[in-house]
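pasting input
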Amino acid sequence: MNVIANASAYVQATALPQLPAPSSTKGPVHWVRQNLFSSPLNTILTLLALYVIATTIPALIKFYIVDAVWTGANRDACLSEKVGRQVGACWAFVADRYQYFIYGSYTQAERWRVNLVFVGVAISMVWLLWDRVPFKALGMMFVFGVLPIAAWMLLYGGARSEFWFLVVSAGLIAWSIWGDYSALKMGEANAFTRPESLVRYGMLGAMLLFGLYVQFGAGELPIVETGLWGGVLVTMLIASAGIVFSLPFGIALALGRRSKLPIIKMFSVIFIEFVRGVPLITVLFMANVMLPLFVPQEWSPDRLLRPLIGVALFASAYMAEVVRGGLQAIPKGQYEGAMSLGLGYGKMMRFIVLPQALRIVIPGIVNTFIGLFKDTTLVTIIGLFDFMKTIEASFADPSWATPTTRSTGYAFAAIFYFLCCWGMSRYSISVEQKLAAGQKR
Amino acid sequence: MKSIMTGLVAGAALALTVTAASAQQGSTLAQVKQRGVLNCGANTGLAGFGVPDAQGNWSGLDVDYCRAVAAAIFDDPTKVRFVPLTAQARFTALQSGEVDILVRNSTWTMTRDTTLGITFVATNYYDGQGFMVRKSLGVTSALKLEGAQVCTQQGTTTELNLADFFRKNNLKYTPVTFATADETRSAYEAGRCDAFTTDASGLYSERLKLSKVDDHIILPEVISKEPLASAVRANGDTQWANIVKWTHYAMLNAEELGVSRANIAQSMQSTNPEIRRLLGVEAKLGEGLGLTNDWAARIIRHVGNYSESFERNIGAGSPLKISRSVNALWSNGGLQYAPPIR
Amino acid sequence: MQPAPETGKASLLYDPKIRGYVYQALLIGIVIYFGYQMVSNVSENLARQRIPFGLDFWDSQAGFDINQALFPYTAQSTYGEAFWVGLLNTLLVAAIGIVFATILGFLVGIARLSKNWIVAKAAMVYVEVIRNLPLLLQLLFWYKAVLEPLPRPRESISLVGGALLNNRGLYVPEPVFGPGAGLIGAAFLLAVFGSIAFYMWAKQQQAATGRIYPIGLVSLGALVGLPLVAFLATGGPISFNYPALGGLNVRGGITVYPEFIALLLGLTTYTAGFIAEVVRAGILAVSKGQWEAADSLGLPYGRTLNNVVVPQALRVIIPPLTSNYLNLTKNSSLAVVIGYPDLAQVFLGTVLNQTGRAIEIVGITMGVYLTISLLTSAFMNYYNKRMALVER
């Protein structure tokens, strides 16, 4: 309209430049006021928190970094009267003993075998936990079939374990060929040449060759008694054996608990509730002192194997409850859909329900694993030399007896456990967020 | 696939279990020979008696005992597998057959001998319980410990003797008990207790681990008898008990007769009938044990006599510097008395 | 039309019902087989190793002392009494730990949601650190943290009210009850029941008339006032036995041992880290609309929290809270590493070691923890049902 066209001179024709917001609603001052001093109570809390931070953090930094001793051959490096200054943490002690913390008393010349197992564990973690790595089913085969037996052969050694390793490799290859052959008959023309099969045969072939090489080329691996194992090796072994055994067993228990068959359900419930009702210590004591009485005398299970069994049973019960949560979250329609397709119970669980249920409980599984990892420290109570115990045992060494050795050792243990557990919990949170994002669409 | 996986896992578990097993029947000696290695229950770490170093090499008086048994059987002292046992696990380990012999500074008592399914064989160290206190406490006798808080290891005879001692002397005290010797010592060092009590040998060994050794003294009183002995299963296998028993006595007799690792070669030529019998040059005494006749010669060649083992591990040649005192031979006024080999 | 009767073995084999029976029979068979194997192995092993079996040790003299016992216990007491000492000590630390862990857990959980940036971050760091470290390590830390800074008995710190603190523990004055002290207890009990009755009456009145009575103030007044009146009326029959330095240590008073303090601190802070997350999740689960609705009704903040948000949040919080309580109770068995005489330390440690009765003692210990767990979950299920949403 015309009115606008010939607007009066006093009407602003152009926009004024924007003024900055008043300082009370913007900028660091505002942020501080809003977030730290918004009310008297908040002010008090803020000051209190600042006070706590101011008193602890600098002291910790001073003790563990500024005043710390980093190198040295024995306790003299960490005694303030010898060094002539205030001495904080004695990291030289950790540097001197780190091999013991990793391997325990494992025979020095054979430690490459332990390293190989560490690599295997690292591979399996990446394979199963990082979603970009393909061939998850193969990864499962690696973790639950190949790795346990390979780790046992490598760590323990001896002709018998090598023989079993070969048998398992050959068995897996035969089974794999049979599987692909059936797929071929079902009409999958490239059953033997699809990438998954190639990788599988590559892996199994390498395994068989390695087994043959060890058996016939390198000669027998010398046996390293489990009594010598220790440190991170034992901690990792117990935690991973726990997870490797508890996952299948936990799934079976969870299915049992949700089964319509009353007796199967009853046994599952009894087992789960019994194990969850008692502390791990009692289970370990049972494994340690009662298990030898439960089996024929000539079996006498190995001292390391006993807590492994105890921990595996214990973790299974917790895993079962995690998996059950996943099973319950699957809508009924999925079951009905599977049944209307004519799938039996086994196929329904394997192809429809479990893949979905396990996917959503990955965070739960990782959390159970964190708990398991922390609980491995309890095996010190029954006299095993896990990571924690190797550190504690080193405190008794007179050549490192200083006033700060203990604080340093515990701090080192704390850093180790924190990094492992925190890393895993970050992972589980990221999976959770990814799952949540998938749900939102 | 899942079921096959589970099967595999179960199979692996079974295989693991079976490794540790080996079908073994008959006498303990036959089992040990068939296995090719002696399973010996040892301390998880008591300097001078049984302790592994960072490479897993064991040393100590108790360890030498096991090596001597292995030497008598296999002529090879390295054919021993040491199983470190906590105080809680030691007797069950022996009962269950996990170890063939327990030499882990365990006190020979009647209850243990009669109710645990084990039998004690020979005392390789006569000990007694003592107290360690800080010098700054100003206490010079255990009888002055009225009202003290005492750190001790749970489930040991030490704990029981402690209660008896204070009750007998009508003194008040507070026990503070821990599961392991390490925990007990570190609590004492942290000032949790006025006194630390265990076998005197243990006190010397534990004192070495304190950061300021000279701040602590061991009180003169010995409040109990602690014969630390080897033990085997009470399953009627007297042959095995005899081997373990006479291994110790052979080491004692060797000391008495002056036969040592150093002079074993000459001693074999000795005309002394006692030495000739001991070393199996004369008479066929070893056969009675189911061993070879040079069984004792093997022990001395590989491990040495009692004195050598003592001095090397806990005596003058070791950091512990424990004197022989009651563990001297009977001929020197001590308690170590071996029946004659004849 | 009649369906054609199915024939042949195949139909039997594929009948899910029959399959179910077969599976279950198989399972029973396996369980019986393993059970039988186990029992026969045990009896064979016991017989061969000549280990006696039975509870006859229960009444034998224990011969060892325990520092903290809630009822008179000496070295002449029996193993059975040692068991009760251990059990009561477990229950004591668990009960107190649960109370403190709940308080601290709620505080930290609320702090994590605080608008105060530094408080929220501090709470987050606390939760992350606590949850990602093994409890065993934390207990060792607390034990060291309790023992190290405290002075020796001779330099004890005097606290208000005549209590003493040193590295042997906290010594508090012990009340000595004179004649007439029972009346004070009776007055206290009366106050407790009176308060409960008043609470129920007030709730009823509120439901009927909408009037709100000051329940908290009245109860507090009764709980403090009545015993106080009784105390004055009977002429103050309670005196105190004050701790004092004597000999090597402090004498008199009630001792709270460092092991107890460290275990309590460890269990409380550890469990609080988990409870905080439960509380946070519970509060976040209450939809924003509930807050807004309460605001629009004009309810003040305290009432909104008390009568609107918390009851709804509790519904989400209680089940996981229960399992945290159970975890705390079970975790108290870690007392063995710092020497607190709980059930695990006394019974599973000392008594097992003195008697060598592995099967009986491990079995009894497991049974006790299992009973505690089942009782707690039964109670909590009942409570949970009461709190659950009543749908019409």
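fyi The CA atoms of residues 28 and 203 of chain B lie 35 Å apart.
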